[in-house]
Amino acid sequence: xxxxxxxxxxxxxxxxxxxxxxxxxxxxxxxxxxxxxxxxxxxxxxxxxxxxxxxxxxxxxxxxxxxxxxxxxxxxxxxxxxxxxxxxxxxxxxxxxxxxxxxxxxxxxxxxxxxxxxxxxxxxxxxxxxxxxxxxxxxxxxxxxxxxxxxxxxxxxxxxxxxxxxxxxxxxxxxxxxxxxxxxxxxxxxxxxxxxxxxxxxxxxxxxxxxxxxxxxxxxxxxxxxxxxxxxxxxxxxxxxxxxxxxxxxxxxxxxxxxxxxxxxxxxxxxxxxxxxxxxxxxxxxxxxxxxxxxxxxxxxxxxxxxxxxxxxxxxxxxxxxxxxxxxxxxxxxxxxxxxxxxxxxxxxxxxxxxxxxxxxxxxxxxxxxxxxxxxxxxxxxxxxxxxxxxxxxxxxxxxxxxxxxxxxxxxxxxxxxxxxxxxxxxxxxxxxxxxxxxxxxxxxxxxxxxxxxxxxxxxx
Length: 461
Description:
Helices cover 1% and strands 43% of the residues. It contains 1 helix and 32 strands.
């Protein structure tokens, strides 16, 4: 294997350089730390009047502009903006800091900000330190994290993710550091380290979050103390490539849950600085080549496999593909057992973690003249509930299977007919996802292992 002797892999575009305006003498408490055997290669001190757009991008909206379902793939509630009310540089506790603020608007809406260094700065191995103070409150999830430079070439988690610091707002004294990747079985790999503050919580004061990254391991730290090490195994080659940085505050979603009436807004993630160091005389191995098939989660599905779930002869929707999402996303196949046509679509859920799958149309369709969606399911009796969701552009709406009584058909299929008015707020003029099913559960509301056959999806007037 070739060796690169630069000691540190770092990608910069014009306009990015080392910024030490907060001072670089040893008497300055804000000066970058000096570590024997390490060299400061890049830093962001947030000491300008405005956010440096030569270093940072704002990701905007609800996620759909980036190929994700509404809610950034996690059912999050915030809309990300670039306005100063959500992200700006301020003075806090005697330091110039980046403030990312989640705000509550009218009718239960929320705004926040998500900043990335994608295409501006990335790192591969070394040490990164971030001094930050977290928000808190039920339904909040501030995060300091990284995604792989190959995000534009492969879907998550094949694009790899390193969560340096995440804090659930309803448990603000616990720190989570996590990696996500595609494992050797083409499933989502996830390894998480936790650390509890002995006193106080992460909203009380600034803390220094650290990642030491080598070709062999990722070691997380807090205020100079190691909090956990993750070894990079053979099926984790994603972590031998470059990553860019992300700072954001999410509101709601699958992990933190919904904001409560008692959640106080605004809430702010304050970031004082980010500093990246390289190990002197370190020789980095070549980055492994990307293997799309090997590193894509789940199966490589045939085009238009979703058509097996659509009613034969119902051509108003055009062709549809199947998209899976989440750590508990189902395996996809077809079955000759069908209530309509030659085959049905099969979603095989493991029941271990949250997840789902959906049909996605090639082109948005106007279904405003229809009144109901009809579909047939063949499912085990242990599955008593699941989320059925439709999406249209920037809007999505869901109902729960337990609220509807189906009609028994042959071969174990049950037919459901649900009024489209039950999908509150859905824009019926631009349907993009005509059917999805998430998180099958049993009578105790626990995730359940289930093989679900889906057939005869159509709309009626």
